[in-house]
Amino acid sequence: WSSDVCSSDLSILFKNSSLVTNNTQNGMISFWFNSYNLSNDQILFGIANTSNLSGNIGLQVYLTSKGTLSNSVVRIVGRNRANTTVIDMSSNVRDQIVANNWYHVLAGWQLSGTSNANCVIYLNGINSTNLIARATNESNVNYLGANVYLGQTPAGNSPFVGCLSEFWFSNTYA
Q1: Backbone angles phi, psi at 14, to 5 degrees
Q2: How far is CA 58 from CA 4, 76, 84, 98, 162, in A?
């Protein structure tokens, strides 16, 4: 699935059906972003079972300031069908994200086996991985949520303020 969009168009990018046909231990995502304002958590992409996000959130990718604007990071959280976190990683704060600049994100995760080497985030081509948590029981990420969203939650919360370009997601790992 791929798309290009700026914040004024984000309300139209909501799909009320599954994006993929199976849960897997793998995932990859690539996109460019330019945030105009880093003051709040901003949703970039997600897959959830309910539109109000009260149920299981299978995957969520967001921009977070982690308390101060100088610590803005891209964070990826994946959960299984039991709503247990199986992957939680972010870009490293040393690779500072500032407003009004374009950044490229390429991230991948492969949860089979015990190696953390297959859980990575590249920011502008540089390995910027901060692995927060990773399940070791080879659990799948729940990609079968009926609500797929880009740029904000299905209810319109936590909108991304800026532009996303060349967005791509897959439930495979290369």
Answers
A1: -140, 130
A2: 23, 11, 9, 28, 24
pTM for the model stands at 0.86
From 60, 27, 31, 80, select the one nearest 148 (Cα to Cα).
60
Interatomic CA distance for residues 67 and 151, integer angstroms: 21
The tens digit of pLDDT for each residue in 110-127 reads 988 777 888 999 999 999
Buried b (16+ CB within 10 A) or exposed e, 11-30: eebbeeeebbeebbbbbbbb
Tokens 């690539």, located at residue: 30
Q: What is the rounded distance in angstroms from the CA atom of residue 90 to the CA atom of residue 26? A: 17
Distance CA 49, CA 145 (A): 4
Distance CA 73, CA 84 (A): 22
CB 49 within 8 A of CB 147: yes
